[in-house]
Amino acid sequence: MDIHLTKDMPQVECLNNNYKIIDGHFILDCHKECIDCNLAKDDTSCFQCRNVRVELWNSIGGRRVRTVQFLTECPVGYQLSDSKENLCVPCQSDTFKNTTGNHNCLPCAPGSFSASNTTVNCMLCSPGNFASKPGSVQCQQCHVGTASRFNGSASCAACSAGLFAAQRGQTECTPCPAGQFNKAERQTQCQLCSAGFFADKPGQKSCTACPAGTSSAEGSVSCANNCKRGEFSPVEGIPCAKCPAGSFTPSAGSINCTSCFEGSYSSRAGSASCTPCPAGSFADQMHSKKLQPVPCRKLE
């Protein structure tokens, strides 16, 4: 829009600064990014842009209204379109752009993600999650047997021996409880200590053998159970066993059994003492080394 000045018209001053005089014409003073416009000094009222333009969508009265803004270069979160001239388009999800300019958006680095368009900075994966590749739209939960303690992890660490992770998305590996162990990495559960072994602290890679003369049940935290009378444990880690028939042990915590003495016998396993032979019979110790029963024999 312009107004042409003639000699017959009085010389007047423009009442506002929305116009400028060019060759005797009052012309709208367009925004510097406009080649022509319908509203002075407004970067959304250009008929033609000098550099680039951005299409913005706003909600007005429940309707989406498009506004075109004209700029020197693409703003943050936007890059030049590959198909439309001088049009800045939003960065796609999985990419970002945190500086102005007409260069392309960049993929999010491993350990970060972008789930929406026009992203200025990618979000870091939270603890218990990871993104192993560039350009992720979301992070994944750590797999079982692994964990991640920090923000921005590109991978989750395998649980060490003595630790486990039974669920996805764990931020810490869990120590094996006392009485349990595991000896390998990346485990989802721990194993109970075998009978005759124990683990008195959490996070054990192996169990300790019970001392000779003692024993333990499966999953024990100690070897407080001494072998009972009539039982024995010859070496570390061997559960208590009953003395064979023909032998005995009179005290708890024994590491071996004693053969019945001459003139006595034991017909059952697990004896704490031997029974004297009845009158008119006897028993010898010829089989005592093998701890076999020696029946009494009648005297001739």
Automatic annotation (TrEMBL):
<dbReference type="InterPro" id="IPR011641">
    <property type="entry name" value="Tyr-kin_ephrin_A/B_rcpt-like"/>
</dbReference>
<dbReference type="InterPro" id="IPR009030">
    <property type="entry name" value="Growth_fac_rcpt_cys_sf"/>
</dbReference>
<feature type="domain" description="Tyrosine-protein kinase ephrin type A/B receptor-like">
    <location>
        <begin position="253"/>
        <end position="290"/>
    </location>
</feature>
<feature type="domain" description="Tyrosine-protein kinase ephrin type A/B receptor-like">
    <location>
        <begin position="80"/>
        <end position="116"/>
    </location>
</feature>
<feature type="domain" description="Tyrosine-protein kinase ephrin type A/B receptor-like">
    <location>
        <begin position="145"/>
        <end position="183"/>
    </location>
</feature>
<protein>
    <recommendedName>
        <fullName>Tyrosine-protein kinase ephrin type A/B receptor-like domain-containing protein</fullName>
    </recommendedName>
</protein>
<dbReference type="Pfam" id="PF07699">
    <property type="entry name" value="Ephrin_rec_like"/>
</dbReference>
